[in-house]
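Re: the pair you flagged

First of the two:
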Amino acid sequence: MLNPTSPTSASCLLVNPENLCFTPKKGDYIYFETPPFQPGERAALSLSRAADASMLAYARFVQQRMALADLQGILTAAGYPAVQPIGDCFVGGANTGRGYFAYNDSHALLTFRGTEADNNNDKAADAELDRAPEAGALVHSGFKRYLDSVWGQVTQCVKGYRANRPNQNICITGHSLGGALATLAFTRLNDPTSSLITFGCPRVGNPTYCNVISAAARTRACYRAVDNLDIVTHVPFDFLNFYAHPSIAIYWLDPRHTLRLNPPVLPSDSDAIAKLPNGFLTTHWMEGLPNPLSEPLADHSPVRYAQYIGLST
């Protein structure tokens, strides 16, 4: 959560492009203030831990990239002494999925990075709206391509962990594009003791694909966190059932930042679009950002997810 001893930490919640595009500067945020993972823990604890893990996957202090030692130091202090980067985590302009696998003897985090504002390859992957086969269904081809690029690393990490820890939980998580990759990894691994937690996740596949996730959610923890009007959770649009969201537990941060489970009515695509600047949808969602941000854009900020969910624990 925000560091109360830092005089600049409150600026992390300002509705400006910097807080949408980048994670907090060093010292403004304290990662992983949740207690260590315990089987059967409250969902809010799992959500808070995963939100921190997802924001950390950007591996940045604002525009400054972390070094591997920075990432390892934060995760080791949080009780994850083993850390394996996935993809080109510490360079600009990568054209692959990115993230990390961090673990201890009781729990693991498989975490994917979201879209970086200064990476045109990420933006191109987001914009690939054609669909490709996956799990007997159809999914977003750009998301699938990004996961394919690091799939060998992912399976190696999971296989190594499972060799001596067959029943420990693996939380698969990510924010934005990272949430989409986490969703695909969850279904592709089909690991019976894994869980899925996403933040600001776009639609990933067609209704048939969503049924695969919904079926898994009957026996495994699957949570989708949505901050109010977050525009990314409303794309790609559900035109002709090309894309949909799965029927899993939804944790919604309402306009007062209160975390609510499965509210009876969620904002529609039209509700979110109505509060975007005129003409905004003709560009990539991270281009031409207004300052201050409109509500559907501000609600996508990773630090808002982490902070407001953390306050609910």
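Second of the two:
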Amino acid sequence: MGSLFFSDVHADARAIATLASCIRRPVFAESFGHIDRIINLGDILHRGNQPKESIEIINALAQDYPLISILGNHDHAFLNDIVVSGSDLMSVASHEQLRNSPLLSIFDQMPLEWVQGNMLCVHGGPLNLGTRILRLKCWQRLSHNVGDSFTGYHYTTEMAFAELAERGLIHMVCGHQHTHICCRKTADGIHEYPIDFIPFPAGTDKECALEVATVPLDLPALFRIGSCHGDEPEFAYADDSVFSYIRILQGDR
């Protein structure tokens, strides 16, 4: 099964529109494989100023592909009137226009996690820590330290792999922190795997310029993908053997 993942759109309609256009092009399927499911790892909202347009693009993707959306901490904050940093006055105003919109039905019954085969998909972290807001899975943060923080509960890779093993899972993919990382569990411990992006040949299709970094799925691994906003949105694709980090080179288009 081929699964595509994106996270942290943050109301950037241009970025998610670029992703949608890229994955619909024949060169993408020819290069990576068929997309059997798209998994949105959360944070559609806040920071950017096009939440309405971003939701509409994601809804359009759901018409073409089976799509699962997971709740992000900024989505959770918006829905529950929790103040978080990072949104300017234009962003706040555009989000307030959404308050009574039927588009918000996208968040109805949105889960905090999704299990795809042997992979746990979650916005922040995998731990079951009760119902306190900053301990919810959408607020948890991968860290070298452990414990409560004003940004969300901090957990380590050791804690994540222990939770996966207890649930009989092998891999985890998350977003939330806007920077990509891969940690793999080997016989002698947990090690960070280098994410080295290289230009991906697009043949004659110059409208889908990509950089790709691949990781074999031969060991238990924690994958955190970069954000799908800004001038070089990131996402990922995984089949049964390889996890691919993908960056779109938009330039000034």
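The mean pLDDT is 95.

-B.
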